[in-house]
Amino acid sequence: MTPLRRGRPDDGGDRRARIVASATRLFADEGFDAVSLRQVARDAGVDPALVHHYFSGKDELFAASVELPADPDDVLAGMASLTAQDRGTALLSAIARLWEGPQRHALAAFVRGSLGSRARTAAVREVFRARVMPRVLEGLEGPREELELRATLAATQVMGFILLRYVVQLEPLASLPREQAIALVAPTLQHYLTGELADPDTGPGR
Length: 206
Known about the structure:
The chain is mainly α. The protein folds into two domains: 12-65, Arc Repressor Mutant, subunit A (Orthogonal Bundle); 72-194, Tetracycline Repressor, domain 2 (Orthogonal Bundle).
């Protein structure tokens, strides 16, 4: 067990920063689900109660550890109430509204910074795996392995849309009206979520 640090008491900002630094590393190395708040406290050398003092729970600590400009729970509110066939359009619409709103510069900076950092890249992966895709897949039926594959395929479409339209700003996609861009991309995203997936044993070349 890591002992609590001795010596002159540090201020609250330093303790909070230490907690966030430990959480960032642990989330990147082990994944969101495997990390506990008690584990973060041990790594940071603080009492677990202090983690609860600064953060209401693991979701809030995770958001702080990756400096998320927006809370995925807020962005995706109401997703579970939609029919399965409406999820693709709804997801892209929520993302487009977010990226075309006042937080667009912070979001772009977050993504660009993530691309150059192993820890931040891992954190972005965890955001999608642990907080975004479970919301999108909630209520969909199928074997766990299939749903995980669908989530991964959907993430490729979402990240490609974000990177090319908003970060790289590749034309003509970057200049398309929002609704047109969504209408063009959403069917592929929807197929990943609910369409028939290719069987490697019966696909082309077999």
